[in-house]
Design brief:
Elements: H1 8-13, H2 19-31, H3 40-56, H4 64-79, H5 81-88, H6 97-113, H7 119-130, H8 133-141, H9 143-159, H10 166-186, H11 190-213, H12 224-242, H13 248-256, H14 274-283, H15 290-312, H16 318-329, H17 333-336, H18 339-344, H19 347-366, H20 372-378, H21 382-396, H22 403-415, H23 424-433, H24 440-459, H25 463-475, H26 489-501, H27 504-522, H28 530-548, H29 559-582, H30 594-620, H31 627-634, H32 650-660, H33 666-685, H34 691-705, H35 708-712, H36 732-742, H37 744-747, H38 753-768, H39 770-774, H40 785-794, H41 802-824, H42 827-831, H43 839-855, H44 859-873, H45 882-897, H46 905-921, H47 928-946, H48 951-954, H49 960-977, H50 985-1007, H51 1012-1034, H52 1044-1066, H53 1076-1097, H54 1106-1130, H55 1140-1153, H56 1161-1175, H57 1187-1200, H58 1206-1211, H59 1213-1226, H60 1229-1243, H61 1245-1249, H62 1253-1267, H63 1273-1281, H64 1283-1299, H65 1305-1321, H66 1329-1341, H67 1349-1369, H68 1371-1376, H69 1378-1395, H70 1407-1426, H71 1428-1431, H72 1435-1446, H73 1453-1467, H74 1472-1481, H75 1484-1510
Helix pairs in contact: 2-4, 3-4, 4-7, 6-7, 6-9, 7-10, 9-10, 9-11, 10-12, 11-12, 11-14, 15-16, 15-19, 19-22, 22-24, 23-25, 24-26, 25-27, 27-28, 27-29, 28-30, 29-30, 30-33, 33-34, 36-40, 38-41, 41-45, 41-46, 43-46, 44-49, 45-47, 46-47, 46-49, 47-50, 49-51, 49-52, 50-52, 51-52, 51-53, 52-53, ...
Length: about 1500
């Protein structure tokens, strides 16, 4: 046969053979073992290569289809397993250079033209070569070929981003970069590497890196991990090519003008300006699209400077590193554009450039490149001059909308305040006073800049100098109406923090300076000058901030400071406040001019501030003598009560009040603050509340409340930042409401009843319209009407303000009743008159009714119940519109936030009636989902009420049976009107809520012992009457569904049997009618059994309504079992219950439907509970099959089903455990052997090889359940005899799961859980130490990198638990396996160090997970330290491992603190020779870390221990 096919070579070369036949022959020759050719593989590859080369050199004409098939043929050969086997066996296959050149040409052609002809096959061929070590030599041997290929590939990715071969292209780039990096590291000629990188790779790689960083490609085109790897490879390539260590001398020669020594010239002789070469290539305008050029350059500048620092920054090279900065900085367009071009740049362009400037400055600051003294002494302030030029550029081109602009200035200020000081006034103007900052991030950046500005000048003790500049900017001529308020929330917070730290002398200097400026520049020119009036407003805010945030004087304050403060206060009152008040008009006229309004704002703000500070100084400092005391003595007044402001006539204040009443602005707010301050002083001074004092307090409180109703009804109220200076017409309503609410304890006692109702009404109006106002603010820190009101009703103080709380409760009732009355034309008020009592009569009304219950027996209880029952039975409905029902829902939501469980009895009863009336009369809306939502809310609130302390008061008006009948009757009627599916989620939720409410009622009935026989008799009688209703309604529903009414009855019967059955089971002695109570339960059980029988036999299977039918069946079985067992004690020959057939039907159905129930946790729990109870009653079991085997097989199907969510499986472990415990307790040893066989079969490694992963998971979960069951005797020994086999199987399974990509965590995590449980419970049972040490191999194979935070937490905690189980439960094994233990533990430590490092980018959201893991590491260190004898020898090694790893990264402080607390405990085990050994043997970097660690250990930990020991008995 070989001879037959030996002529193929000639046929392939023959011109007469068609190309179709040639390709078929070539394919046959490659795959056939019968074709004999000498060196066949090389011949066939050479034939295909020569054909392609001839075609591309125009020596051969081929169709496109043939060319494509030739490429595919080459690709098939390169990727064939046959070729791989030949190469593995040592056979040599030579790829000719012509083939790789041809591949390079095709890739180059694609990068320029975008033609995708044959590109898929070409890239496959390239990938095949690069991924095969024996073939890639063709590229690695000729470096220029690989460089050219890499250049073409990168250009292709950049120029053809939408190509269909993008994913393939990036895989090839990744391979090519990997090979180039290995060549680069081996290359001894740095000049060649530098030329290759800068000449061919620098430009395409920088463009590609920029595009990869900008999310140009989707996740489908480019995996995120691959993108990150390629960017890392590009950075490594640039570091190894452009910033090699052996290029340092060339950089020094270029940047520092240092001549190289002759010995170091060598290969670097002609490489004189490496940085200039890089910059020339970088700024070349032709290497990428003009629209991308500036962005690519900007991102590249930051990258190149970072790599330069990484490579060359060490002690002594700081100035060299700085010299590279201006060169690279000059590449940015903001440095070389003309002024007109700079102005034409868009905000996005500025943002890009400024972000890079920020990065560069951060590099300088974080690496200590700028040393002020060294720069001045050694380098003639070269760095300072550069930063000054940069500062001038930034200040001359302000961009307050760009956060990076503020951050750049902040870094410059932190480097040296002198950099910005020459332009301090312009900086304050453009960054603060005149800046228009609206965006949140920009505001935060501005706040940080102002913060460091004040901190710096505070350290320099030059705050007055800074304020002088601030005042200069404020007072310079400007369009004041365009300015933002000077002290918004951010600057005000920063300034407050700074002022609190200043010494009093500097505060007084600053205060005096502002006063002088105000008096000298602003005050004389105020009249009729709007700009000056606005400046006065700004200066007033500044004065307010200074005075409010100074440290208070006290008895320890030096006397000169106190006297100086007195003088400043006197000057302020006499020379500033009173002149400002004098400028206000004496009588209200038409709308005042703007300047008058602003002067009024300034005058009242300063008056309020002065009065507040004066009061505070008088209270805290006994030596302070207020000017107010002298003025009060001199004033001819008839009253000793405090005035609003000393020295001002009461008539003058009346005129000012009348003038201010015309506007809602800062003046009005400050005047109310003055009145509040007056109330506080009155309360402090008055020893007893005389009539005059009481009248004054009531007047003041009423004035503060003012026209709140009108102000707060405005829908346009803006959010407020909480600063007095920003109060204006739009923010005044919020500021006013904030003033009222925050001072309610002072105001409420002195407000009349109408005013209290007004406050309650306002509060309810705001809360009920919260949706509309919630969207008006987008900043969490701002204050809104809704936030204030919500905080008030959630406050524990709210119920304590009894009058307001009561008024609010009745406002809610009135609002609900108004909506109800609007839908029933007044019929409800006739039927339920008690619901519409006025709020002041409610208390007396219900107290009178309660008294009647005591005197006239039970009859008054029936009156209200009969009224409601007649409404319900008469099918009385209130038809509400959708909008009205939504309003009621909002009101119910407000009610739910109140403390309903602590209401007084009258309010409790009233709210119970209100909610019950709404629930039974308002289901009539056209939207069923809204109806159901409303009912759910009503019954939830009724349940909340009945959990309260006044629950018993309801039963003085109702019988429990009456409530039961009213609720069920109304719901049964509503169910007939609701057009919904029987399994509607909201309907099922309603059933659950109603069931809980009915259960609560019956529990209360039993707890309070309220006529048990009477109430339970009425309930069971009512339910028996409902039977006809449900049977009649069932004909209207589909045959395979349970009607809504039947569901209600089923839920009611279930709750009745649960509560009543539990009560009878726990009753130890006869309490009331001992024979009657059990007899009342029997008809309920019979009715429930009949209803269930109907459900399960009419075609409504458990899959139709599992959560109701199954719970009912489980309850019936449990109660029936208890009854049967109790009866058996009395009558041993008593027959089985009548529902055995039903239980067996449910059991059989559950066996087949159990996996389908796992989607609903409640149904599945009920099913497992039913099976547990059923298994515990052998008398119910069918005779033909083993119940143990049947249930076990059903559970196995559940555990093995792929559609079962893992979370549900974890949540239901408790219920499965209870079932298994019952089964194994009752079952035989053979039953347990069956379980063990199934476990071992599933754990067999063959299942993993066959990809039968569900079998593995099922076996692991089964084993976990088995370990949770208490076993003893022969059963326990059976389990532990199989333990060696189990541990070995778990080891193999873990290895298989960890070998997959990505790691199969779904199997790894359960395996670790089972392993830890096995080790804990096998403390005395596992006899062979080898089986314990096998656990270490499992722990070492589980990866901890590249995991999402939730997965990382899960894996880490389980590894820790397993290690801890070995440490605690197997101490003897630990003695011989400490090295293995430490290997596993060090993996955890190193992982926390890696994950807890500070990253350049990204948020700190994952830090919470890392902190949890760090705590576990600290805890393990403490357990190790507790075993000092075993681990003392290894303690130096543990410390060395820690410091060696920790010195490579910068940890987050919180993570570092936790790890250090743990390592301190290990240092406790180290002796002095160990410490000396570590100091001598550690590497230099690690030695520094250890030195710092040991110093902290001695300073904090050791000193703390010594202190504790000193005080220990």
């Amino acid at each position: 046969m070989a001879a037959i096919y030996s002529g193929i070579s000639l046929k392939l070369k023959s011109k007469t053979t068609s190309w179709e036949d040639k390709l078929k022959l070539a394919h046959f020759a490659w795959i056939s073992h019968q074709c004999f050719l000498p060196n066949k593989e090389q011949v066939l590859l050479d034939w295909a290569r020569q054909s392609l080369v001839a075609f591309y050199k125009k020596k051969l004409e081929l169709k496109e289809e043939v060319v494509e098939r030739l490429w595919i043929y080459v690709d098939n050969i390169l990727h064939s397993r046959k070729l791989q086997n030949l190469l593995k066996n040592g056979k040599t296959i030579n790829l000719q250079i012509s083939l790789v050149k041809m591949i390079n040409e095709r890739v180059s052609e694609f990068s320029f033209s975008g033609s995708q002809r044959n590109m898929c096959a070409v890239l496959n061929c390239c990938q095949g070569i690069l991924s095969t070590p024996a073939l890639v030599v063709i590229y690695t041997a000729k470096q220029e070929l690989l460089v050219a290929l890499l250049s073409h590939l990168c250009w292709s990715a950049c120029r053809q981003p939408e190509s269909t071969v993008t994913a393939q292209l990036f895989e090839v780039i990744h391979l090519a970069l990997g090979h180039y990096l290995s060549i680069q590291q081996q290359q001894a000629n740095p000049r060649r590497v530098f030329v290759d990188v800068t000449g061919h790779l620098l430009q395409p790689c920088l463009v590609l890196r920029y595009l990869l960083s900008g999310s140009t490609w989707t996740q489908d085109q480019l995996r995120q991990v691959l993108s990150r790897d390629i960017r890392s490879q590009i950075e490594a390539m640039l570091r190894g090519g452009v910033f090699r260590p052996d290029l340092l001398s060339s950089y020094k020669e270029e940047l520092l003008d240092q001549q190289q020594s002759d010995s170091k010239m060598g290969t670097m002789k002609s490489l004189l300006a490496p940085l200039d070469t890089v910059i020339t290539r970088l700024v070349d305008a032709d290497f990428c699209e003009p629209r991308l050029h500036a962005s690519v350059v900007a991102s590249s500048v930051a990258l190149l400077y970072r790599l330069f620092l990484d490579s060359y920054l060490k002690e002594g090279n700081q100035f060299l590193c700085f010299q590279a900065l201006p060169r690279l900085f000059g590449c940015l367009q903001i440095l070389h554009l003309q002024e007109e071009q700079l102005k034409a740049l868009s905000t996005s362009d500025w943002t890009t450039e400024l972000l890079v400037v920020e990065q560069l400055l951060n590099f300088v600051a974080s690496n200590n490149i700028y040393n002020v003294a060294a720069d001045r002494i050694r380098h003639e302030e070269a760095q300072f001059c550069f930063y000054r030029r940069l500062a001038e550029l930034l200040i001359n081109h302000p961009h307050a909308s760009v956060p990076a602009w503020f951050r750049c200035l902040k870094i410059l200020m932190s480097l040296n305040h002198l950099i910005l000081e020459p332009d301090l006034d312009d900086l304050l103007s453009s960054a603060w006073i005149d800046a228009e900052v609206t965006e949140f991030r920009a505001k935060k950046a501005q706040e940080m800049l102002i913060d460091i500005l004040f901190q710096t000048y505070a350290k320099l003790r030059q705050v007055p100098r800074l304020f002088e500049e601030v005042l200069g900017v404020i007072c310079r001529p400007a369009a004041e109406t365009l300015r933002q308020p000077v002290l918004t929330s951010g600057p005000s917070t920063v300034l407050s923090a700074c002022l609190l730290e200043l010494p009093p002398s500097q505060i007084l200097d600053t205060w005096s300076l502002v006063l002088e400026k105000f008096q000298a520049i602003v005050l004389p020119c105020l009249e009729s000058d709007t700009d000056m009036a606005l400046k006065s407003r700004s200066l007033s805010s500044l004065l307010h901030c200074i005075m409010f945030n100074m440290r208070s004087l006290d008895s320890n304050t030096p006397l000169p400071i106190i006297r100086r403060t007195q003088c400043v206060m006197e000057r302020m009152l006499g020379d500033l406040v009173k002149p400002l008040l004098a400028l206000l008009p004496g009588s209200p006229g038409p709308e005042p001019e703007l300047w008058v309004q602003k002067v009024s704002d300034s005058a009242l703000l300063l008056s309020y501030t002065w009065m507040e500070v004066d009061t505070m100084l008088r209270l805290n400092c006994g030596q302070y003598r207020s000017v107010a005391e002298d003025l009060t003595k001199d004033a001819p007044t008839s009253s000793n009560l405090p005035s609003l402001l000393p020295g001002l006539e009461a008539q003058r204040w009346k005129k000012i009040e009348k003038f201010i009443a015309q506007s809602n602005s800062l003046s009005q707010y400050c005047l109310k603050q003055l009145y509040l301050q007056k109330m506080k002083r009155t309360l402090l001074q008055a020893s007893s509340l005389s009539e005059e004092v009481l009248h004054t307090l009531q007047y003041d409180a009423s004035y503060i409340l003012g026209s709140a109703t009108d102000n707060l009804s405005q829908k346009t109220a803006a959010s407020w930042d909480g600063q007095v200076g920003t109060v204006c017409a739009s923010t005044y309503p919020v500021a006013h409401w904030h003033l009222i609410v925050s001072n309610l304890p002072i105001l409420i006692p002195y407000l009349c009843l109408d005013d209290v109702r007004c406050v309650a009404s306002i509060l309810l109006s705001i809360l009920s319209t919260s949706k509309a106002q919630d969207g008006s603010t987008d900043e969490e820190l701002c204050i809104t009407l809704v936030k204030i009101s919500t905080a008030l009703i959630h406050s524990p103080l709210f119920p304590e303000t009894q009058s307001l709380h009561s008024a609010f409760l009745m406002c809610l009732v009135a609002r609900c009743c108004n909506i109800l009355c609007s839908g029933d034309q007044g019929l409800l008020s006739q039927q339920l008159p008690w619901l519409f009592e006025k709020d002041h009569t409610i208390m007396s009304y219900w107290e009178t009714r309660f008294a009647k219950v005591g005197t006239e027996g039970i009859e008054p209880r029936r009156e209200i119940a009969q009224s409601l029952l007649s409404l319900v039975k008469g099918d009385f409905l209130i038809h509400l519109e959708e909008e009205q029902l939504e309003s009621l829902l909002r009101l119910l939501q407000i009610i739910s936030t109140l403390h309903l469980d602590s209401l007084l009895p009258p309010y409790h009863v009233h709210y119970f009636l209100l909610l019950l009336s709404m629930a039974v009369t308002t289901v009539g809306c056209s939207c069923p989902s809204l109806d159901l939502q409303f009912l759910v809310k009503c019954y939830q609130l009724l349940g909340c009420l009945q959990r309260g302390g006044s629950a018993r008061s309801v039963f003085r008006v109702f019988y429990v049976s009456d409530v039961f009948e009213i609720v069920l009757t109304s719901l049964l009627q509503a169910s007939s009107r609701l057009l919904i599916e029987v399994d509607d989620p909201m309907w099922l939720h309603l059933l659950q809520v109603v069931g809980m409410f009915l259960e609560q009622l019956m529990q209360l009935l039993i707890q309070l012992k309220l006529s048990l026989v009477l109430n339970f008799g009425k309930i069971t009688a009512f339910l028996s009457r409902c039977k006809l209703y449900t049977e009649a309604s069932s004909t209207k529903q589909l045959e395979n569904q349970i009607p809504l009414g039947s569901q209600l009855i089923l839920v009611s019967l279930t709750k009745l049997c649960q509560v009543f059955g539990s009560f009878l089971r726990e009753r130890r002695q006869p309490q009331e009618a001992p024979a009657a109570l059990p007899e009342l339960l029997r008809p309920a059980l019979l009715q429930m059994g009949t209803a269930l029988q109907l459900c399960f036999t009419s075609g409504a299977g458990v899959h139709c309504l599992p959560s109701i039918a199954l719970v009912a069946a489980t309850t019936l079985l449990e109660v029936d079992l208890n009854q049967h067992r109790r009866d058996r004690v009395v009558e041993p020959d008593r027959t089985l219950p009548s529902h055995v057939a039903l239980y067996q039907d449910v059991y059989m159905q559950l066996l087949s439907e159990l996996p389908a129930l796992t989607g609903n946790a409640q149904s599945f729990q009920a099913a497992l509970r039913f099976l547990t109870l059923f298994f515990s009653a052998p008398e119910f079991h069918p005779k033909k099959d083993s119940v143990f085997t049947s249930i076990f097989n059903s559970v196995r199907r559940v555990l093995a089903a792929p559609e079962v969510p893992a979370q549900i499986s974890q949540d239901l472990d408790v219920h499965l455990g209870a079932l298994f415990t019952q089964m194994l307790e009752t079952g035989t040893t053979d039953d347990l052997a069956l379980v063990m066989r199934c476990v071992l079969q599933g754990l067999d490694v063959g299942c993993a090889w066959r990809a039968d992963l569900q079998a593995v998971l099922s076996a692991v979960r089964l084993l976990k359940l088995l370990l949770s069951c208490p076993l003893s005797g022969e059963k326990a020994s059976l389990l532990w005899r199989a333990c060696p086999q189990i541990v070995t199987a778990l080891t193999l399974q873990s290895r298989e799961a960890c070998g997959e990509q990505p790691v199969a965590l779904a199997r790894v995590i359960p395996i670790l859980d089972v392993l830890a449980a096995l080790l804990r419970q096998g403390e005395d049972a596992i006899s062979n130490p080898h089986h314990v040490t096998l656990a270490f191999s499992i722990l070492l194979t589980v990866p901890l990198d590249h995991l999402r935070p939730p997965d990382y937490r899960s894996v880490f905690s389980r590894l820790h638990n397993t290690l801890f189980s070995i440490l605690q439960c197997h101490p003897k094994v630990m003695l011989k396996a400490i090295p293995s233990f430490l290997n596993c533990f060090n993996r955890l430590v190193f992982s926390v160090i890696h994950e807890g490092r500070q990253k350049d980018k990204g948020s700190t959201d994952d830090l919470v997970v890392v902190l949890e893991c760090a705590r576990l590491v600290e805890r393990m260190y403490s357990h190790i330290a507790a075993r000092a004898e075993e681990f003392a020898v290894f303690s130096p090694l543990m410390v060395a491992h820690y410091v060696t790893k920790a010195q490579k990264v910068t940890l987050y402080p919180a993570v570092k603190d936790l790890l250090q607390e743990g390592i301190y405990l290990v240092l406790d085990l180290c002796t002095e020779p160990d410490i000396q050994f570590l100091r001598a043997s550690l590497q230099p970097g690690a030695r520094d870390v250890f030195k710092e660690l040991h110093n902290d250990y001695l300073k904090y930990h050791k000193a703390k221990q010594e202190g504790e020991r000193r005080y220990t008995a």
